Amino acid sequence: MSNRLEEARSRLNRLGKISLGFYPTPFHKLERISEEFGINLWIKREDFSGTTLFGGNKIRKLEYLLKDAKDQGCDTVFTYGATQSNHAMETCTAARRCGMRPVLYLGAIVEPKPDDVRANLLLDRILGAEIHILASEGRSTKDTMKANEALFAQHREQLAKQGHKVYDIPIGGSTPRGAAGFAEAY
Question: What is the pTM of this model?
Answer without folding.
Answer: 0.88
